[in-house]
Amino acid sequence: MPTPFTHLRIAQNLLADDQLSPSCRALLHRQKPAFQLGSIVADARVASGVGREVTHFYAYGRPISARPWRLMLREYPTLKDANDEPHLSFLAGYVAHLATDEAWALKMVRPQFWEREWRGVERRDKFLALHLILTVMDERDERLLASWQAESLARSEPRDWLPFMADDVLRGWRDLVARQIVPGGESETLAIFGRRLKRDPAEIRAILDDPALMNLTLWRHVSREALASVERQAYAFTRDQLAVFLTEFMPAPVSA
């Protein structure tokens, strides 16, 4: 659910997180481009026209009964046999993405937006508010991306890494994101959200730039403190699931 900029910022933080083992971090540093691509490419479903359940292994409106990344490995067991570092690091990024989205769905979207009544607010306006909070995160995280991110991401080169999305789809998504984060690049987040919401991006921009409208539309229902709490929990969960994946499913490439 968070945007590619937020997922790249999470990947950036994971690379520097000393709560991950040195061998895990060394692997991800050696294969940063693949790790970056894995951290964003689940959302290439938007370009490939497939449903969320195909790339995220859960669907809105149904309970998440198992870790989505475990369901991915169960459905596509050949992914357990990744035998080179770039593929393993790509899958590590994909696992991190699925873990973040799982935590976001369970701790923010469902309890705060869909299961809790906002008095006098229609569902379509909740949908707008959800995209406002995602844009707040997106714009913050884009500013915090390190200077190496764009060039490094552009160097990622998939080689039959996923059985459910073709390499040309992965490359297309890589290029879409990379061109936005190069120096002087222009974010396409509002344009994408505008199409999804069927609203003029300028209208969304006007709300974002008006503190009173943001309070009326979003913050009086979901506080900044609630957002910060969920982000902390989601990051810790993502880091823990990434560590489990690398040690439990792919131990040989990261052993000392």
What is the radius of gyration computed over CA atoms, rounded to a whole number of angstroms?
18 Å
Distance between the termini: 35 Å
Multimeric status of the protein: single chain
Q: Report helical residue fraction.
A: 55-70%
Order of helices and strands: HHHHHHHHHHHHHHH
Low-confidence stretches: none
Structural class: mainly alpha
Strand content: under 5%
| Number of helical regions | 15
Mean pLDDT: 93
State the domain count.
1
Number of E-state strands: 0
Q: Give the biggest beta sheet.
A: none
Please tell me what the overall shape is. globular
Task: Provide structural commentary.
This protein is mainly alpha-helical. The protein contains 15 helices and no strands. It has one domain. The longest helix has 30 residues, at 85-114. The relative contact order is 0.18. The model has no long low-confidence stretch (mean pLDDT 93).
